[in-house]
Design brief:
The complex is a heterodimer of chains A (339) and B (340).
Chain A (H helix, E strand, L loop, with lengths): L3 E5 L3 E3 L4 H17 L4 E4 L8 E3 L2 H11 L4 E8 L5 H15 L3 E6 L4 H6 L7 H17 L3 E4 L4 E5 L13 E5 L2 H10 L2 E4 L5 H17 L9 E8 L3 H22 L16 H5 L4 E3 L1 H15 L3 E5 L7 H21 L1
Parallel strand pairs in A: 1-3, 1-13, 3-5, 5-6, 6-9, 9-10, 11-12, 11-13
Antiparallel strand pairs in A: 2-4, 7-8
Helix pairs in contact in A: 1-11, 3-5, 6-7, 10-11
Chain B lengths: L4 E5 L4 E2 L4 H18 L3 E4 L8 E2 L3 H8 L7 E8 L5 H14 L4 E6 L4 H6 L7 H17 L3 E4 L4 E5 L13 E5 L2 H10 L2 E4 L5 H18 L8 E8 L3 H22 L12 H12 L1 E3 L1 H15 L3 E5 L7 H21 L1
Helix pairs in contact in B: 1-11, 3-5, 6-7, 10-11
Classes of the chains: A alpha/beta (339), B alpha/beta (340).
Chain lengths: 339, 340
Amino acid sequence: MDMQFGVMLRGLFDWDDDMTVRFEELMEQARLIDKLGYDCITKGSHFSTYPHQEMTQIPFLCRVMAEAPNVRLNAGIVLLALHNPMEVADYFATMDLMSGGRMIFGCALGYRDVEFKAFGVKKGTGVKRFEENLTAVRRLWTEEKVSMVGSTFELDEARTSVPLQQDPHPPIWIGANADKAIQRAARMGDCWYLNPHQKVETLLRQMDIYKEELEKHNKPFPTELPIRREVFCAPTHDEAVAIAGPYIKGMYDAYKTWGQDTVMPEEDRDITQEYAELAKDRFIVGDPDEVAEEMIRYNEVLGVNHIIMSVQGVGMPQGQVLDTLTLVAEEVMPKVRAA
Amino acid sequence: MADIQLGLMTRGQFPQEDDMQVRIEEMFEQVRLADKLGFSCLTKGMHYSSAPLQDMQMVPYLSRAMAETKNMRLNMGIVLLALHKPLDYAELVATMDVLSGGRVIFGAALGYREVELKAFGVQRKEIVRRFTENIEAIKRLWTEDKVTMKGTFFELEDASCSVKPVQKPRPPIWIGANADPAIERAAQIGDCWYVNPHNRNDTLLRQLDVYKRALDKAGKPFPDEFPMRKEVFVAETREKALEIAKPAISLKYQVYHSWGQDKVMPEGDNNLDLDWEELIDDRFVLGSPDEVTEQLLDLHKTMGVNHIIASPQGAGMPQGQVLESLHLLGEVVLPNLKSA
């Protein structure tokens, strides 16, 4: 089975943690990920992350490039409604050059008030800005000179400062929770970047919506279909749940306070359930056989062929992270690929 | 002993036809060498839509290049801050400070290019206000856990900087400025004025007074670190230095002229050679290693600058020439500066 395996370096730590120490640990993870033959390193983007600390996406991915010379680098995801398309397009052109053509451009709408306000994004303009920005970015990557008037920018024969390495450009993955957003992903992206919060059943329903919209716009099913999931692997099921469970549960409790549930489809909105209920069809946590089986199932029922694993919960010790990354590489990957 | 630091600016701007994969490797080779030779910092500028030159974006470049260094500080020289949002850059710079173990310098200035202002939806009349509000917000985000502040183009509502810079209380803020009001502003809100490379030296001397008076008015002392960027062309002989400077400067000024930087350029081109030498003498540092040392010491004596950022690479200058310049600067000029 043709499957790519990525790791999301969530990089979220307690407010009083020493980030220079955490940075070194993340670089150690990156080197191991590269060595073990994973396909991709992912870094997310949020601003104003109190009570947690998080390093910012772009500088982090650029620094990681030096530690991980082989893996693809996924900006998963850029909060595209907040930013300026000239800057985004130029950043990624530079990164694609420096990495030798390894960038993936993930993007999505975002939902946090504090972020929208900090970037001066007026309420209700997010979708428009997202669509305009994405259009502009794609044009800057593929046209020699771009003139385009958007609601927050004006490109006047603008161009990126260096050419892209990938032809025609880094793949555009659009993250989406809600049905409308998934339709937008079909229209405007190279693929839908399936998110980690929805249960499989919901994703199946939404996959129909996705396929319908693709057909409507005469676009083929994407050759690369990625999904992000919480993943943890240990020698036994119980061990895996005992280690990862509390971290994941804690995170979903935090999501509730952030309002993440409000942007999820209704059938998945109750994220206050106990771990076992929460985990079913949502997290991939278990022994190597279980984890492999679940990944194979995802491929068979959803058609995903790139699994981005979120592993490190807030406060999870380095040793546990390295162990699970190694176990997945050594015992899960071969099983999945052989299926 | 003069406590003068010598920094490096890798301009990173190349002609349209250049293979950037080759150039980026060359730039990293320059960076590794400069770090080894004891240069104080690695500097990169910021522009968008830089055609007809190819250029790498500052933030990604410095974030990657820092992996090639052990000691050099990373000088963001300069961020076009009026174009951006403060939470964005507060977090970018703080992250770079963590990634580098506390080695970032935050340089910022207003900017001038119409294509850039338009691209970011910024009107010229807003530039100063955006700039000053952003500086204020960034300082607060770096030093306070939660910030509430209503700017004209942003609103911080109990916002936090997701990671704090390593340097305490915060990274140094160098403010680039050409015009007198901007220099006064640098005195008021920056840690220092970051002297630009375009003005004539006699102009700079006059502006030094403007700066000092503004510092007095603000009740601030003369800065401990007073940086200046200079185009520096060094070779075994003055003749050779002139030879390497000419094509590099010609191409640069062709482009900058089309960008609207030409306001600081003298008009007329009648007596090309004489004007040419005059142009260089009053703006650029140029000559044999001994001559370069002397000119830098002179700047230190007259202007009080103690951190000179040298840009030795003109667009199109071959790698061999650049490395040679770095060796001369690092192995001859720098020790001479330190022992003066």
